[in-house]
User: Fold this.
Amino acid sequence: MALGGVFFVVASLLLVTARVLSLNEAPMEEVSLIGVAPAPAPLAPAPHMVINATKECPGVCLARCSKHSRQNVCNRACTTCCMVCKCVPAGTAGNRETCGTCYTGWTTHQNRTNKCP
Ligand SMILES: *[C@@H]1O[C@H](CO)[C@@H](O)[C@H](O)[C@H]1NC(C)=O
Ligand SMILES: *[C@@H]1O[C@H](CO)[C@@H](O)[C@H](O)[C@H]1NC(C)=O
Assistant:
């Protein structure tokens, strides 16, 4: 939903910008449109997108699980998810949705809990 909100805001700003430009009869300058668009300010911080899973996942997961009550369990699950989803959320908890359904949809037996920390 956060992404939808950001998209709506950006789209609204672009519409307003386009209207202002046409009112002023300014030439269509795509560069100015890009310049006016705000920097992405997602509510949730961007996740760590993994390029080389073997190399990156252990370190990223150590950080992700550093405040977890069961760090070994967390690290195992995180590393598996990291290898497959190529993504680890920012911070030590939450923000799972930033890694998409691969991360959020992966549940343990009986669909009870998220596998990915
Ligand atoms: C990933 O990183 C490891 C460790 O640095 C390296 O040995 C391996 O070649 C890398 N793989 C790719 C596909 O870059
Ligand atoms: C778990 O969820 C999936 C998708 O919603 C469903 O197809 C499956 O039957 C569920 N499994 C259990 C054990 O509830």
User: Anything to note?
Assistant: The pocket of 2-acetamido-2-deoxy-beta-D-glucopyranose (ligand 2) is lined by residues 110-111 (CB under 6 Å). The beta strands are 48-49, 87-88. The helical segments are 2-23, 30-36, 53-64, 71-85, 100-104.
